[in-house]
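Q: Got a minute? One more chain.
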Amino acid sequence: DLRQILSDLKKTTMYVTHDLVEASILGEQILLLFQGRIEEAAAKQVFFSQPKKEFTKKFIQSQKVIG
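A: Always. Here it is, folded:
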């Protein structure tokens, strides 16, 4: 339901979550923060398939998420 509501708004929306699965379902772009700093920001497919930073790779692996 939330994905549909966000789509219907036709506005850029920032949704904050600690759940990477939820982020992968709802987001088109994903921004990963660590200690208040941006570690990585990318389109969802790029974020999961080609992370640029080692921190991001380890975080994705620790969450056992497949994008």
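A: The radius of gyration is 12 Å.
Q: Perfect, thanks.
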